[in-house]
């Protein structure tokens, strides 16, 4: 496989073209020609060496774990896919990534691509979709009538979370900036909390919070939670320092807090496919860059600003 990644850890200048062995197709595997790859913060964190304790890669390493493409070959025991199928997926983090021309992935991690999407649109969904599904459904058990709070509603995860919570019949509030107020409302948010407004408060008591920010933003939002509520957070201790008193605030509210690190899951991907095809979820694309060395570097720099509205995607123009 030919892709883009690193031979040593560092900033975006370490990104280069990488050639590695694609590997052997297993009985339950798919060989997929990648057409587009999503870009996520985990990509540049791996690049910088921030996740070495979790994923001790043997460099060189192709980056990216979020993609859409077309099946080239199927393993002899695979019954539900065939060559030519368009698919979307998140591969295993421990292996080579999706900033590449092709990849071998267990068929259990893959789902048919929604029929109403392009490869670029579909590539924006796997990681955020899985993260949100596992947070809202598996941790939060969000259902009709629940009051849901989403921190950073205009980001890649937040914009998906608003749509999924609304599809479940929940009342949804999201934090964002004034410039993104209408964008978040258009996604379906019932209530928009503007952190750059002079009045940043609500009288709503929430059953569930999706924390995508951590730090003081998370600590301050705890006051809006009902006692015994649930929190799913994607922020680990490596990402931010927990502010003073946050443990006490959580205990005072009797919150059930669970950290979510997204796992690949083809069944979850199929749930997302159904929601997209039914019109409950639409992909939000912030930027599209070419899948080249320079394109990947620009994509990482854009992601690191933390100010994107939706997802960043790399397009394989020769794919």
Q: Helical residue percent?
A: 25-40%
Low-confidence parts, pLDDT < 50 over ≥5 residues? none
Going by helix content, strand content and strand pairing, the class is alpha/beta
Element pattern in H and E: EEEHEEEEEHHEHEHEEHEHEHEHE
Largest sheet: 7 strands, mixed
* Assembly level: single chain
Number of helices: 9
Q: In what range is the share of β-strand residues?
A: 25-35%
Mean pLDDT: 95
The total count of strands amounts to 16
| End-to-end distance | 13 Å
Radius of gyration equals 19 Å
Shape: globular
Report on this model:
- The chain has nine helices and 16 strands.
- It is of the alpha/beta class and 319 residues long.
- The strands form three sheets. Strands 3, 5, 6, 7, 8, 15 and 16 form a seven-stranded mixed β-sheet that branches. The chain has a six-stranded parallel β-sheet with strand order 11-10-9-12-13-14, covered by helices on one side. A three-stranded antiparallel β-sheet has the order 2-1-4, with no helix packed on it.
- Helix 5 (181-187) links the parallel strand 10 and strand 11 (191-194).
